[in-house]
Write a structure and sequence with these properties.
- The protein has two helices and 17 strands.
- It is mostly beta strands.
- The strands form four sheets. Strands 2, 3, 5, 8, 9 and 11 form a six-stranded antiparallel sheet that branches. A five-stranded antiparallel sheet has the order 1-4-10-6-7, with no helix packed on it.
Length: about 375
């Protein structure tokens, strides 16, 4: 195939509805149909051109149309090998019939490497099944003066042209003895013809991004609108425990940011000076008692270990009365706790977990 025709198609998002890349070589109404999917992006198709000769500048030309909604955003982008990024060439608008898109002229040195150039069409917002990108023709057009060898304007001779012979005779005419009268030559008028260019040169795409103009920034202040933009994330720990230690280790916080609406082809979105403030607080009730004089503890089942773990069968707690614990005695399935400030009965419970319940007998 010719260097200005598509060599391959890479489908990043989407699928082929009908046809193949051979249909993109001619503007004949025989189209390549590409599907849109219900995702974001709706599609992402990358076309590659191979064996491109040395040019100075060129442009991509597409004949076809996008069949979708007027609010959809379909961008044409070219790969810039100097910047290692995709550069926007413009938008493909929703339509119902073939349109010719003459994308901006771009320099060969930035957009061709190893004879290869790439152009992609990406549906930026969420797609809808049943919408299509219809490509009738997609080619490269040379916009410089150094295209391949130009065909001659006249036919090459088919026979050997006649040869003029130099005479070998000597002139015998005598040299005149009087001067030859001067001859007045008629003036010749030269007509200057202005050559009309056959192609229109478009402004070349920039090879480096323009400087940032802070006056054009559109900022969203989270503290405005009654703090409606402030992210509040609550972490709650529920249960019954004393003398516990809580910590957040290796916390990973992922905050997706989505921009919706009609996107202009040259817009730039950035998060500038993003400040994330994390505030922590603990609410609840606490008990403080010197040296735990009125506390009782119970071990794990079948083990003399008092360590608190995920089995949740060991524990300890203070009595509801002040003073000292004197003695604990078993009474059937109960444990009677005697102290200087009162007497309490401890009894086994199974819900919400195997542990002890407590009921004061006297205070």
């Amino acid at each position: 195939m010719a260097w200005y025709e598509v060599d391959s198609l890479t489908i990043n998002v989407g699928s082929i509805a009908w046809g193949d890349i051979a249909r993109t070589h001619s503007d004949d109404g025989n189209k390549l149909g590409l599907n849109e999917v219900a995702a974001a992006p709706g599609f992402d198709y990358e076309f590659k051109f191979e064996s491109i000769p040395a040019l100075t500048q060129f442009r991509f030309v597409m004949d076809g149309y996008y069949e979708g909604l007027p609010t959809d955003t379909v961008l044409a982008q070219a790969w810039n090998y100097t910047l290692s990024t995709w550069v926007s060439l413009g938008m493909v608008l929703d339509d119902t019939s073939d349109q010719t898109y003459l994308f901006p002229t771009i320099p060969f040195s930035d957009y061709v490497s190893g004879g290869q150039a790439k152009v992609k069409f990406i549906h930026a917002n969420t797609g809808i099944v049943g919408h299509y990108l219809r490509v009738d023709q997609l080619v490269i057009e040379n916009m410089g003066a150094d295209v391949t060898t130009v065909a001659p304007t006249t036919a090459a001779p088919t026979s050997v042209p006649p040869t003029t012979l130099v005479p070998t005779t000597t002139l015998t005419t005598a040299v005149p003895t009087s001067p030859v009268p001067s001859t007045t030559l008629a003036p010749t008028t030269l007509v200057v013809t202005t050559v009309v260019p056959t192609t229109l040169l478009s402004t070349a795409a920039p090879t480096t991004p323009p400087p940032h103009n802070a006056d054009l920034d559109v900022l969203f202040n989270c503290y405005g609108n009654n703090y409606a933009g402030v992210l509040i994330i609550e972490l709650t720990i529920e249960g019954h425990s004393l003398s516990a230690s809580y910590g957040l280790e290796d916390l990973e916080l992922s905050i997706p940011i989505t921009i919706t609406g009609e996107v202009p082809s040259s817009a730039l979105y950035r998060l500038i000076d993003l400040e994330l403030i994390i505030e922590t607080s603990i609410t609840g009730w606490g008990v403080a008692n010197e040296e735990r004089k009125n506390w009782v503890a119970w071990s794990k089942i079948g083990n003399v270990s008092f360590e608190l773990d995920r089995v949740n069968d060991a524990g300890f707690r203070p009595m509801s009365w002040a003073g000292y614990v004197y003695q604990t005695l078993q009474l059937g399935n109960n444990v009677i706790i005697y102290g200087s400030g009162g007497v309490t009965r401890a009894f086994p419970v199974s819900s919400p977990a195997p542990t002890f319940g407590f009921k004061d007998i006297s205070t």
